[in-house]
Amino acid sequence: MSKTKLYEGKAKIVYTTDDDNQMLIHFKDEATAFDGVKKGKIKGKGIVNNKMSCHLFQYLERYNVPTHFIEQASDNEMLVKKVEIIKIEVAMRNIAAGHLCKRYGIEEGTDLQTPILEFYLKDDSLHNPLINEYHAYALELATREEVRYFSQQAIKINAVLRSYFHRRDILLVDFKLEFGRLADEIILADEISPDTCRLWDAKTRKKMDKDRFRHDLGEVEETYKEILERTLA
Ligand code: TMP
Ligand code: ASP
What we know:
With 233 residues, the protein is α+β, with helices and mostly antiparallel strands. Helix content is 30%, strand content 35%. The chain folds into 2 domains: 4-81, Phosphorylase Kinase, domain 1 (2-Layer Sandwich), CATH 3.30.200.20; 84-222, 2-Layer Sandwich (D-amino Acid Aminotransferase, Chain A, domain 1), CATH 3.30.470.
């Protein structure tokens, strides 16, 4: 298969393939945090993020959540359907952490009485500002119908993944999703991994995600491998 680099991001490289409708995503070991201010490498992260994403996309498909996943192409590559990415990052939160604590003065680890759905503008140069649905319509990021649809999907994905991780003694604290347009469909795209989710051990509340890298908590590579094993179990 011939492949040409289409785009290189902070954690992934996207290649075209022989098929115009498909792309190959290569998951890198490079890690960034705080808008690329902190840079580093997490050995084995590309494999972990690819395998976890492939597994969770296939799991979600069983719950009628359409995704861009086609097949795991190698340890650190995923073959996907080519979509037009919607410029909105959709976040769901179950337990207070990260920016929620900072922005609203909530103590980390506080159980939220109801999950919080948030939208961020997908634009690194603007530092992904928090937006609401009216920004989405006014800035023509998505239509009302699209926002309604991917919001419902995000709520469903949260319910499905939360109980999936709960059965493995892991708390799904929060996560970020990206959706894409494919013909007249909206499908789940990007990745679902320790880079894009906060995952805590349910008993010890040990952080098992990118916060270990963001805040220099140590055992980063080991914990990425451990969370993959527990996710696949
Ligand atoms: P936040 O608390 O930093 O806003 O993060 C919320 C969730 O979104 C968390 O699970 C990490 C994920 N996330 C990304 O996937 N990409 C990002 O650029 C940021 C800031 C957060
Ligand atoms: N992904 C963002 C960055 O690369 C922020 C983060 O994950 O903390 O800077």
